[in-house]
Input
Amino acid sequence: MKVGFIGLGGMGEGMALNLRRAGHDLVVHDLRRESGAAAEAAGASWTDSPAQLAAEVDVVFTSLPGPVEMRQVGTELLSALRPGSAWFDLTTNSPTVVREVHAACREHDVELFDAPVSGGPKGARTGKLAIYVGGDRQAFDRSGAVLDAIGDQVLYVGDIGAGNTAKLVHNCASMIIRSGIAEVFTMGVKAGVEPDALWHALRQGAIGRARTFDRVGDRYLQEAFDPPSFALNLANKDLRLALELAEQFDVPMRAARLVQEDFQEALDRGWGNRDSQTPLLLQNERAGVTIKLSADEVQVVLDRG
Output
């Protein structure tokens, strides 16, 4: 299958390379010419525009910063994609925007799927990604097998927009949970419990055994926010999209609004390019505590099971 891939950033490059490793004839494009170097070295060919790429392929993938960029690229794609083509948008996007673009795609006989991914840059490189897919079920059954090259959990969620709804719920929950963990952690530490002992205790409780708390070990507990795995600027965009979706359906989001306030304060401090867990430092400051374990101390707790 001849596959096009647009957007070769921290996530896109790894996914594009895995498509190539799976044997697909790959054509790539990015705003930055140098971003295509790794894909070209793996045998992909470069195109100078989305329209040029669209004219050459059967399936196109886009991995872009957000809704605005997806709309812009989509305009060029629809000018050149052949009828019957499939477009998988891997962007974490607005379900409303995705549905609007989907309607335009239908007019061109192009099948659009919203297919945001979860797993970070490491997952993009290793193929350990969850992919939340929204779109026509029959069309997905015909075209969806190509996703197996980039993810190990390809999950059809529902009609167009459902993929991003699932991703926004996942990411919003993640942000709320981490904020809550920081709150209770500062209480425990200020009350006199050492952070490694407290973390171990939480992990062995009913909720902790689900490993909810493991994800804070590599960033928050070590104060290791640079370089980012998931930048605050991008996380803030996802949270904003989740709140827009909730507002659309009149769903109150008190906890998420509090997280948004912390995100804004962190952005105002110039932390946008740091990891998305950086706002958790604000809770430490408010409580007047320092929580910082070494990587070895974190591993000791993990090794204890």
About this structure: The longest strand covers residues 153-158. The mean pLDDT is 95. The domain at 165-303 is CATH 1.10.1040.10 (N-(1-d-carboxylethyl)-l-norvaline Dehydrogenase; domain 2).
